[in-house]
Amino acid sequence: MKYYVDVEGKTLEFDFEERGDLLVVRHQSRELRIDLRQVRAPSLYSLLVDHRSYEVFIDQEQGEQEGEYHVLIEGEQYKLTVQDEWARRLATIQRRAHIQAGELPIKAPMPGYVVAVLVKPGQRVERGQGLVILSAMKMENEIKAPRAGTVQSANVEAGQTVEQGRVLLVLA
Q1: Which of 59-63, 111-115, 142-146 is the most confident on average?
Q2: Domains of the chain (ranges, CATH numbers)
Q3: Rg (Cα) of the chain, in Å, rounded?
Q4: Peptide bond into 42 cis (omega under 30)
Q5: Nearest Cα to Cα of residue 162 among 105, 121, 94
Q6: Residue 169 contacts residue 155 (beta carbons within 8 Å)
Q7: For residues 63 and 50, is the Cβ–Cβ distance under 8 A?
Q8: Nearest alpha carbon to residue 15 among 24, 6, 7
């Protein structure tokens, strides 16, 4: 699975692959074997990277948004934002859909299974409010409103399978 990590203004791309108890991470042409285990709840971890040990504190509570972490490793603190390829695709689509007026069809960014429709026709929604929860590749993705508006129609219901590009609902 591909992940994108934003740290200090840079976006790094990683491929993760599970091999038994180890996690193999590829970045560019480099491959690392990683073992991350929680030592003490909620935030102390032991991290082994190619047989080198680190003590890591990970604070998810401080994060201002989903996927944001504050990490302390070897006395240095980093703010990381982590997105898998689906979350990144969703964020990109939602940024592109910056339309201020008129009808706005909200489409499925990937094929999946509708877990829940969080709004009803006629309901007023704010920018960033959850509209539909779509499950794809065993992960639930919340499709959010790219702008404020009123739900004109809901074209899907929970339990339904949808293809990429299918109109889930329309905002007006």
Answers
A1: 111-115
A2: 2-84 (3.30.700.30), 101-171 (2.40.50.100)
A3: 19
A4: yes
A5: 105
A6: yes
A7: no
A8: 24
